[in-house]
Amino acid sequence: MNYSEISLIAVGLSMDAFAVSITLGLSVKKPRLKEFMLPGIYFGFFQMLMPLIGYFTGTLFASKIQTFDHWIAFVLLGFIGGNMIKESFEKNEEDTDKNQFLFMNMLLLAIATSIDALAVGVTFAFFSINIFAAISIIGIATFCISIAGVKIGNIFGMKFKSKAEFLGGAVLVLLGLKILLEHLLYS
């Protein structure tokens, strides 16, 4: 797995955080620096932590499942991506009257948006990659995309939320398919 593929995964994983950041941007009339930075910090950190946990968990079992690891990657990425695509079609009205930037709310949102990154970390265990470079790319991408999400949400509202989630899901599904086909056709 090369860095361009990891970058695509990073963008795909960050789409949940982007979608949530859009809704956070809707919750404030005029975001201050704090409102821009908090989602990026929380989401970026957890998008780095979860793949790391998944990677080390996956390496414990990698030698036992190498013969079907491509299927695991395909199923996990396909499931995550498919779920994101499904969610992109659901209508979700957020309550914009309360402060969405409180610690517990941000913590729960960060964990919820990074669960899929845990599964991606497991798939990283099957490839010879520099996990620290990979999680850095994921964290930085999520940080930047989350900040952009707050700004876009504040300016444009919910108009782009479902499109971003759909695109992120499609990227993950296509990467899962690519991994499967590469292994089946070139191994």
3D architecture notes:
The two termini are 15 Å apart. Helix 3 packs antiparallel against helix 4 (103-124). The protein has helices at 3-26, 33-65, 69-88, 103-124, 131-156, 161-186. The protein is mainly α and 187 residues long.
Low-pLDDT segments, ≥5 res: none
Report the oligomer: single chain
Please tally the helical runs, counting DSSP H or I stretches of 4 or more residues: 6
| Largest sheet geometry | none
SS elements, strand count: 0
Order of secondary-structure elements: HHHHHH
Structural class: mainly alpha
User: Helix proportion of residues, in percent?
Assistant: over 70%
Structural Rg: 17 Å
What's the short story on this structure?
The protein has helices spanning 3-26, 33-65, 69-88, 103-124, 131-156, 161-186.
Task: Give keywords.
single chain; 187 residues; mainly alpha; 6 helices; 0% strand
Per-chain topology:
Elements: H1 3-26, H2 33-65, H3 69-88, H4 103-124, H5 131-156, H6 161-186
Helix pairs in contact: 1-2, 1-4, 1-5, 1-6, 2-4, 2-5, 3-4, 3-6
